[in-house]
Specification:
The protein has 132 residues and is an alpha+beta fold. It has 4 helices and 5 strands, in the order E-H-H-E-E-E-H-H-E. Strands 1, 2, 3, 4 and 5 form a 5-stranded antiparallel sheet that branches.
Length: 132
């Protein structure tokens, strides 16, 4: 079983992401880190999720609006390579974890501290996560 998820960042981060295409991989790496941690939290054991991540750099109006579409397994593999099923994914926790991971990684690669602080202030519930 799998799940389709869409995640994004607010438009105030778009210029930083657009400035250098090598940052697009960071964006996708942050998604994998968030998914692995969330599934580990939800199941109370360390898991690795299976996922396909597709970056859509543009929205319907063809403006730069980078967002990620993710097809992920409903669960993950533990250290013994046993698949642990997890159907329910609380979006509220995922929103906050998504914001944390993407800002932490972006900050490590040059995003200003002031912009990171502004994001935490403006988005106390986290960044956009849609769990189908």
């Amino acid at each position: 079983p799998h799940r389709h998820i869409v995640i994004s960042i607010p438009n105030l981060l778009w210029p930083w992401l657009k400035e250098d295409r090598s940052r697009w991989k960071l964006y996708m790496d942050a998604a994998i880190s968030m998914l692995n941690e969330c599934l580990s939290i939800f199941t109370h054991q360390k898991l690795r999720v299976g996922a396909i991540i597709v970056l859509h750099p543009f929205g319907k109006d063809t403006d730069f609006q980078p967002h990620l579409h993710i097809i992920m397994t409903e669960g993950g593999f533990n250290s013994k390579l046993k698949f642990i099923h997890k159907k329910y994914l609380p979006a509220g926790i995922m929103r906050k974890k998504w914001m944390f991971y993407v800002l932490k990684l972006f900050q490590k690669f040059g995003l200003s501290n002031s912009l990171v602080s502004r994001c935490y202030k403006l988005y106390p519930n986290g960044f956009y996560v849609w769990v189908h």
